[in-house]
Design a protein that fits this description.
alpha+beta; about 120 residues
Length: about 120
């Protein structure tokens, strides 16, 4: 069995194996790809794009992550930023992810009333 995932900025799909994984304790949202097959590896969800127009210079996508280490596995949001074919992923823990919500709401409220729109 294979799962096709889109690479940011590319128009082709890349097959990834999803069978024969040694870790049976996957979160319900885990894609069960090769990046979560070993001890201490990360479980990743599908990334959801934030593109509004489709012509944004920097593409942003967000998903969930969990790492199987310690008695309480760290979990949070995974932010992926890409320009063209180059992508960077930044895991943000759950506490910081929650703290960012009101901060972003306040900043967006300010931006909507005082800042001009810039491409």
């Amino acid at each position: 069995m294979e799962l096709a995932l889109r690479s940011p900025g590319l128009d082709r799909e890349e097959p990834r194996p999803v069978s024969n994984l040694p870790n049976p304790a996957h979160p319900a949202w885990c894609l069960r790809g090769p990046e979560c097959a070993g001890a201490g590896d990360m479980h990743l969800s599908r990334l959801v794009g934030a593109a509004v127009r489709g012509d944004e210079v920097i593409q942003a996508r967000v998903g969930l992550w969990r790492m199987d280490v310690g008695p309480t596995p760290p979990t949070g949001l995974l932010l992926e930023l890409s320009a063209g074919t180059e992508a960077e992923r930044w895991p943000i823990d759950l506490a910081q992810s929650r703290a960012l919500l009101p901060i972003m709401r306040d900043l967006l409220g300010m931006a909507g009333t005082t800042l001009p729109r810039i491409a």
